[in-house]
Design brief:
Length: 176
């Protein structure tokens, strides 16, 4: 679990750097809410090129919820303040001292994360600047979410697990 949390923090580190490249004057990071971070995590986890591996073996606990897919382990870590470098206690992200060196123990996952983020950036350079509500709308296009949320609604539940195989096999959307 700690490795999963550290992988998520490395994703945040990469996404924030990407955002700062596109919006160098916006140092507040007010757009990085918990919801936005969770949506971007879904897109980074699911993207892959051809037969390359995605990150759904690391982030393997997605649930369909009202506002799109949520990785439950990461959501709980955010709520329980178990992240080392980031804090989501307030409405917006708070960033501690983060150096790329902090992620050296991720090994191969570090390369996989970087590759996934680069691929997402190739597919949609501006996705990191989308608002949380735009990312929710984008995630609602995914058939894997639609099927799982439909099942949750049938059984009058607030969420339903999302099958990683279904996420991989259905059409994926990365732009509005």
């Amino acid at each position: 679990m700690n490795n999963k949390i550290l992988c998520f923090e490395y994703i945040l580190y990469q996404l924030i750097n990407w955002y700062k490249e596109l919006r160098p004057t916006d140092m507040s990071l007010f757009s990085f809410t918990r919801l936005k971070a969770l949506k971007l995590l879904f897109f980074v986890s699911a993207i892959r090129k051809d037969e390359d591996r995605d990150l759904l073996d690391v982030f393997n606990n997605f649930h369909a919820m009202q506002h799109g897919p949520v990785e439950s382990d990461i959501y709980n870590a955010m709520i329980e303040d178990k992240l080392l470098h980031y804090n989501f206690k307030s409405r917006f992200i708070e960033v501690g001292q983060v150096l790329e060196y902090d992620f050296r123990e991720l090994g191969e996952n570090c390369n996989r994360i970087t590759n996934s983020i680069n691929l997402l950036r190739e597919r949609n350079e501006k996705i990191v600047t989308y608002t949380a509500s735009q990312l929710v709308d984008l995630s609602h296009k995914w058939e894997s979410w639609q099927i799982a949320i439909h099942m949750a609604n049938i059984f009058d539940k607030g969420s339903e697990p999302m099958d990683c195989g279904l996420i991989r096999s259905n059409r994926q959307y990365y732009s509005l």
